[in-house]
């Protein structure tokens, strides 16, 4: 069986996807520079699956490493997560995001073409629909103007992929546009491990719950929503991992996919205050919070229409919001300092 290369496979979504790939008996190579991830996450993946991926420390912007992997291993597919993902950080350091996310993808595609690696699954984002898009987002919509350099980098990479596929008859790609992954593996061994103060809502709430952070900052309470706070489509990270497997199986079974895009989401949106209240109802822990000014790049609300993924890939979300919070909380309790104490 050929290998699947997973770039950024030690990260939050990457490690859960690697777990599911190994459980599904895929042979996996992980390429990660461990800038925003931990080698411990992959040790935990081995503990969960009793299977060992090949792990290569390196950067996706290093085409020599990519060429070496494709030269030395029989790889037929790539799942591409590697890249930076903080909306806030991208507004402060946009060129960092353009270099890592865009140039890294250019290097990957160039190497794939040179070695005739023809199947690509790209970790894209719902932000490519832009600020002007109507809700819910549907794949047939014209892509818009993303609200941050992070989102713009995803849009540009999708365009680069499309152009590269058009220029190379055998290359085919799937862009997975997803929303707000939360939760963790049921074992509590792997989960989201943000550096410093979390940018994402549920890890922030969890760290408030264990009193690592004094209180939750809710950015904006004057959005045009029912309670004034932002609404998002949250999905369990394990459902998201299963979506990558479904996309991979689909593209490996075809020869004429070209470029396809799929939304991965629940189709339901929850506000920040609804998540705070649900966390309390699930865990019994009250979360102190204060309202702060809006953050640059935040949209008031968006959610997915994921009918296409269900019809074409046979994929849909199976885990509830209660499970997302239960699994997050189990991970947080077992790993109050994330992976750091084990590094």
Notes on the structure:
The chain is of the alpha/beta class and 343 residues long. It has a domain at 3-183 and 234-265 and 301-318: Rossmann fold. 40% of the residues lie in helices and 17% in strands. The chain is built from eleven helices and 13 strands. It has a seven-stranded parallel sheet. A two-stranded parallel sheet has the order 7-10. Strand 2 (27-32), helix 2 and strand 3 (54-57) form a beta-alpha-beta unit. The longest helix is centred in the N-terminal third of the chain and has 21 residues, at 94-114.
Write the layout of secondary structure elements.
Layout: E1 3-7, H1 12-23, E2 27-32, H2 39-49, E3 54-57, H3 63-72, E4 75-80, H4 87-92, H5 94-114, E5 119-123, H6 149-167, E6 172-178, E7 180-182, H7 201-209, E8 216-219, E9 231-232, E10 234-236, H8 237-252, E11 259-264, E12 270-271, H9 272-283, E13 289-292, H10 307-313, H11 321-334
Parallel strand pairs: 1-2, 1-4, 2-3, 4-5, 5-6, 6-11, 7-10, 8-13
Antiparallel strand pairs: 9-12
